[in-house]
């Protein structure tokens, strides 16, 4: 018994030097079953803590990336008096990575453009329905141009339902930069965004479905 006690005491007694002390304690933990279980438990907890820290760091980095992406997304104004059509086109724009503001009429679209300029967050592109009551897309576009927003500052695209020759002429006489024909598809929308948003290059297969 004395010899065994002496051996145990010799294992516990820290020899000189930090590395040697660590090896002695480590060996003692492995040879003593209760201590070994505690030691392994501590190791597991430490590994879990390290993994949690790594995940937290990754989540913070992901949030920073999303915030940066949101701040640099092109801002689109979409004006349409038809609620369902407005939401359907907004969904396509969001799938293309755009930040979308909605207006339910021509007068509302004019107000949105003026308010955005005052807030220092001007729009990069406007999509305006040409067949709205009270103030249609042509009238809204003329008012926006008169207010001091030329095509080089704010390109405007008209939205039409199977236009005739007269409506096509009105698109250009109102200083619109083009037209989208309903039903609007990604195949028609993506090239238009590429043309009028040169800093936002998209491929036909880039847009991703919005998670429900």
UniProtKB/TrEMBL annotation:
Keywords in alphabetical order: Phosphoprotein, Two-component regulatory system
Modified residues (4-aspartylphosphate): 129
Pfam families, sorted: Response_reg (PF00072)
CDD domains in UniProt: REC_hyHK_CKI1_RcsC-like (cd17546)
Residues annotated as domain Response regulatory: 75-197
One example of a Gene Ontology biological process annotation: phosphorelay signal transduction system
UniProt cross-references to InterPro entries, sorted A to Z: CheY-like_superfamily, Sig_transdc_resp-reg_receiver
Descriptive protein name: Response regulator
Organism of provenance: Qipengyuania algicida
């Amino acid at each position: 018994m004395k010899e065994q006690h002496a051996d145990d005491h010799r294992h516990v007694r820290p020899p000189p030097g930090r590395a040697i002390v660590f090896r002695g304690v480590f060996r003692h933990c492995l040879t003593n079953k209760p201590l070994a279980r505690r030691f392994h438990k501590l190791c597991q907890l430490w590994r879990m803590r390290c993994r949690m820290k790594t995940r937290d760091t990754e989540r913070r980095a992901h949030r920073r990336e999303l915030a940066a992406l949101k701040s640099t997304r092109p801002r689109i104004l979409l004006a349409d008096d038809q609620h369902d059509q407005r939401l359907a086109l907004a969904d396509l724009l969001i799938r293309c990575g755009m930040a979308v503001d909605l207006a339910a009429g021509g007068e509302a679209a004019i107000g949105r453009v003026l308010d955005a300029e005052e807030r220092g967050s001007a729009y990069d592109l406007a999509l305006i329905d040409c067949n709205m009551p009270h103030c249609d897309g042509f009238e809204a576009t003329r008012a926006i141009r008169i207010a001091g927003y030329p095509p080089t500052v704010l390109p405007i695209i008209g939205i039409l339902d199977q236009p005739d020759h007269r409506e096509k002429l009105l698109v250009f006489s109102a200083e619109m930069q083009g037209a989208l024909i309903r039903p609007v598809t990604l195949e028609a929308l993506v090239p238009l965004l590429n043309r009028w948003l040169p800093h936002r290059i998209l491929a036909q297969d880039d847009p991703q479905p919005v998670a429900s």
